[in-house]
Write a structure and sequence with these properties.
The structure is a single chain. By secondary structure, the chain is an alpha/beta fold. Helix content is 62%, strand content 7%. It contains 26 helices and eight strands. The protein has helices at residues 14-20, 36-50, 78-102, 108-125, 149-159, 167-187, 193-210, 221-232, 240-252, 256-269, 274-288, 297-304, 308-328, 333-340, 343-354, 361-369, 374-394, 400-414, 421-432, 436-443, 454-468, 473-478, 508-516, 521-529, 534-545, 549-566, and strands spanning 10-13, 23-24, 57-66, 72-76, 135-136, 211-218, 482-486, 503-507. The chain starts with 9 loop residues before the first strand and ends with a helix.
Length: 567
Amino acid sequence: MSLVDIPEPSRFRIGNLFQDNNFIVPQYQRNFAWEDNEIDDFWNDLVELADGRRNSHFFGQIVTFKNPDGNQELIDGQQRLTSSSILLAVMRDIASEAYKHNRDDMSPDSGDVLRDVQRDVRKFLRGEEDSQPSLMLQHGNQDKEGRDANAFFATLIHGGPGHAYTEPTKNMVAAYKYFQKHITSSINTSNTWAGRVDRLSQLFKAFVDNFYVVMISAPSQRDAFIIFETLNSRGKDLKASDIIKNHLMYLSGSDIEEANQKWNAVSHELKDDSDRITHFIRTYWAARQRLVVESHLYRSLSQELTNGAKGNEFLDDLEQLVDLYTMLEGAPLSKLQNFFQNDALAEQIDILSRLRVKLFYPIVLALAKRGFSQSDMVIIMQKVISIFIRHRTIMNDGTNSLETGFAVIAEDIWNGKLNSVHAINEAMTERLMKPDAQVKGAYLNLNKDGGLRGPKKWTLVYLLVQLYDEELEEKAFTDDDFQLVHVGETSVSPTMLNYIGNWTLLEKGLVSDYERAVGDNRTRARLLNRSFIAVNHELANEVEQGWNDQKLAARQAAFASESIVIW
């Protein structure tokens, strides 16, 4: 970015800041994102002032651009000002409720203080009786009740919290309730209304009189973008996606509205969640350019996206791929089947999602970008699954080399270097596939904890379904008909209890009787014979004759030999 002369900053008390300015958060700015940690810090700083442990507090900087309408467009600082507005509204609401229901129990002086708080907050926030509010949030991106961020914010400020559907509005409601709880708790430490009103007044005055901000009002919108990026690109306060958005808006120049619409379309699909947007962009960048850690994501993008055309291409790609990405994040199988219209591919994605595998996302984005058919993708995804099962599930190696390797393959797909199914699978085999001998050796001692839910359960279920070579996938995954059970508990060594060879799948209706029959080989064999799974019938004979370490080891060895064929 080009250099800019930063204008002389102005120092404001919060009260004067709201009284003397009208702020607007442009549509292209990030949404309200403060959560418990930030709100907690804000409150603790205020309490220190109200308790007299400090005389003043620097609340940070805000960056604005004064538009032709005379309003200050907030380029940086909306988190502070939105939180401040919510805090003021809560103070007003508490003062209003206290005066309304308890004025007969308090002195005239206490009543006057509560009315003063209400009057001053109305003066700071405005927005009633057709007056322009001191802070307006983004318009657009309506929720399912037809409210955008500003409509929800206005209702919250002037009518209390409603039901929130998006991440930013949930954060607003959480902030309101946090302040409401802590202010109420703080003032209720006094047993008298005089003491409670005095405490509320202390908190109010400490905030409006002793919280300071520095406002930098840039001479142009372009300069404001540069100042924002300079102040925030190395900080921890913003997510990478927030700084990237600012960079894209800066690059777009006169096309900022179009760029903002594209960004909002992507953001809306990801529920305006900055973390999800950041993860999506990092995945996309790993497929298109290179894998980088999240803290270096903005730097990497800004070095490549240097003009409006490149920024527009970037946004077009995000728009094109965001629906696919949301499917990869963990959509249920029914949605996957509707989206892909290829049941085999949908089932592969579903399995990987259940195993909590995300490393393959860049490959899928690259395949979609290059226009590979879904039948081609099925063949490639089978190789991805084989690599993951060998590398991670069987050999328990770390994920760093897999993440890097899949990203390199994705980049080669994206740039056309790998342009056929055969070439892609050969490259993955050469770079990432663990050798048969190593996999078979590791499998001989493979054990899994199992579980009733989560990736541990689904990993073991997947292994057994594939090893059993039966039409079990729908019953095991979609219908969830089976439960994991040990073949034997007391008859095998404790070190071998969770070996794969000591697990099987059993219909849930049979599990209770099976688990009660510990040590009763005949009953367990009878229950195994009642199972739909043919392998359980073979296992029943072994159990009835007496299950032991030797039989378990033989079963494990057979699984080890099959594993290098299946995967």
